[in-house]
Design brief:
heterodimer, A: 256 residues, alpha/beta, Rossmann fold, four-stranded antiparallel beta sheet, 9 helices, 12 strands, 26% strand, B: mainly alpha, ABC transporter involved in vitamin B12 uptake, BtuC, two-stranded antiparallel ribbon, two-stranded antiparallel sheet, 4 strands
Chain lengths: 256, 322
């Protein structure tokens, strides 16, 4: 079943839109990685999907219904967004921060219920962050904080989670950890994330979308997308693509 | 350092009660304890004054929290942003012109104060926005500009109407004319302001993460901002109408509450309300006792405490930034 259908999406201003006529579908439960060179429209695409930007032309449909027919609050229950750089707010505990994810569920003149707290705790557990549940978020390391940012989005219980470069400023250990956790989360929800590291994206994502100048160069399984030809088209870089015998995923070696 | 938030609330409530009892004994006229409860001075002068100062403290404290929340800037305060001065112009216009109408049960002074307060805050807010962000520098500068303009208009009103003494004294900020009527006038504003700030705390919390995050959490940012600006202006205007221009309460109190209890508005709003009440009542008690029988207007006391404090946070903020 398609959870997300995008048709003829155009976004940006004037004659040179950042997103140019994109059409694609995403199936429920997929882990889609969006890759492409700087300025290819990866972040813009996520921002349109999250509702932060309004498309100039085209339609976005969630579970078959047009996005325009949802209220802001209903949308927040379906889509969660983790921006690339989130500023940790000094004085907020991890639990308080993750509880903010429950905002769309808390009714007017009410506060977070015990159930909301339980869901927040569950999300923290999913991200293996229980050990610092009471810690001040501003005292966490980058990798720890990124997990909290994702836990906050997960506490929103969205059908789709959008993550903008969730691993780009982390060291290798946290990159792998975050990707493994995302892969686990994917079992219950759809994940769309942008990446710079093609090897990582190809290793962990189920599908990849390669963008350039706001257009799709390739979209499909990682070994269909990560090819010498596509890499050349998108990045003008010569690369050799091999299938890793153990992971069965395409991996890149850059050629001189 | 983890402080139990419920205990803090009880502690502050206890402090408030204790302070108001102490304050009842203090004044230019000494009344011995056995006559205190039968004294006219207590019931007609001191008690209304104590209650009114606490109410104004609550309203200014919450207004500070609200403005800091929606502008995402810890230096926002009704006085610094020129909201108080704007409200002052409105109130002076109503007083100077001798306006005496009543709309929706509100008399002319608070109504005009409110209108001018909203206009001022909107001007400051628009002026301070650079590319959708409100920076501290532009916010303070815009506040200074609007305050200066309002001060000029106030001076003009004083000169034209010839009401120098009454308007000037009221401007300095004072609770010396406190009456039960003032308390009744303020009550609806205080309740409305508190209820809105408290029950919109989840939106204010979401806004801490930034406008975009709040938006993806389902918060209608523009609507919340408008409601909150109206609430802060209403409370400031009502406070200014009864007690003149009193600054820095909304700056000092939320700053300390945030420092010790964190930025969560669920605690920030009620604790700042109590803290504002304590500070205002304490400052007024000091103002009317240290140089007794001469009274120092509360606005002067607060400016003496508040201005250095403002500079201190400003410095600290920049040191942290660099």
């Amino acid at each position: 079943m398609n959870i997300l259908e995008v048709q003829n999406l155009v976004c940006g201003y004037g004659d040179s839109p950042i997103i140019r006529d994109l059409s694609f579908n995403v199936k429920a439960g997929e882990f889609l990685g969006i890759v492409g060179p700087n300025g290819s429209g990866k972040t813009t695409l996520l921002r349109v999907l999250s509702g932060l930007l309004v498309p100039t032309v085209g339609e976005i449909r969630l579970e078959g219904g047009g996005v325009k027919n949802y209220t802001r609050n209903e949308l927040a229950k379906m889509i969660a967004f983790v921006p690339q750089l989130m500023e940790p707010v000094e004085g907020f505990s991890v639990l308080e921060m993750v509880l903010l994810g429950r905002t769309p569920y808390v009714q007017r003149f009410r506060f977070e219920s015990d159930e909301d707290v339980q869901i927040a705790k569950w999300a923290i557990k999913e991200l293996q962050a229980m050990e610092f549940i009471d810690k001040d978020v501003s005292k966490l390391s980058g990798g720890e904080f990124q997990r909290i940012a994702i836990a906050r989005a997960l506490a929103q219980e969205p059908k789709i989670m959008l993550l903008d470069e969730p691993i780009s400023h982390l060291d290798l250990r946290y990159q792998v950890k975050i990707l493994k956790l995302l892969k686990k989360i994917r079992q219950q929800r759809t994940i769309i994330a942008t990446f710079h590291d093609l090897n990582m994206a190809s290793r962990f994502c189920q599908k990849l979308m390669l963008l350039k100048h706001g257009e799709i160069i390739a979209y499909g399984y990682p070994d269909e997308v990560v090819t010498t030809e596509n890499i050349w088209k998108a990045y003008r870089v010569k690369a050799q693509v091999k299938k890793n015998p153990r992971t069965k995923r395409a991996s890149l070696v850059f050629l001189p | 350092m983890k402080i139990n938030k419920k205990n803090i609330l009880y502690l502050l409530l206890g402090a408030l009660v204790l302070l108001s009892i102490i304050s009842m004994f203090l004044g230019p006229v000494f009344i011995s304890p056995e006559y205190l409860l039968k004294s006219e001075i207590l019931w007609q002068i001191r008690i209304p004054r104590i209650i009114l100062s606490a109410m104004v403290g609550i309203m200014l404290g919450i207004s500070g929290v609200i403005l800091q929340g929606i502008l995402r800037n810890p230096l926002a305060d009704p006085y610094i942003l020129g909201v108080s001065a704007g409200a002052g112009v409105g109130a002076a216009v109503a007083m100077g012109a001798g306006l005496n109408f009543v709309i929706f049960g509100m008399s002319a002074v608070p109504v005009l104060a409110f209108v001018f307060a909203v206009v001022s805050v909107l001007i400051v807010y628009k002026l301070a926005q650079v590319k959708g962000q409100t920076s501290t520098e532009t916010l303070i500068l815009a506040g200074v500009a609007v305050s200066a303009f309002s001060a000029a208009v106030l001076a003009l009103i004083i000169i034209v109407t010839g009401e120098l003494q009454s308007i000037y004294f009221w401007l300095l900020g004072s609770f010396s004319m406190a009456s039960y009527g003032d308390i009744i006038t303020l009550t609806p504003y205080l309740l409305a302001g508190f209820i809105f700030a408290f029950f919109y705390s989840k939106e204010l919390n979401a806004l801490i993460l930034g406008e975009e995050m709040a938006f993806t959490l389902g918060v209608d940012v523009e609507k919340i901002r408008l409601i909150m600006i109206i609430m802060a202006s209403l409370m400031t205007a009502a406070a200014v109408s009864v007690s003149g221009l009193i600054g820095f309460v909304g700056l000092i109190i939320p700053h300390f509450v945030r420092l010790f209890l964190g930025p969560n508005h669920k605690t920030l709003v009620p604790v700042s309300a109590l803290g504002g009440a304590i500070l205002m009542m304490g400052a007024d008690t000091i103002g009317r006792t240290v140089f007794s029988p001469i009274e120092i207007p509360i606005g002067v006391v607060m400016a003496l405490i508040g201005s250095p404090f403002f500079l201190y946070i400003l410095r600290r903020r920049y040191r942290v930034k660099r």
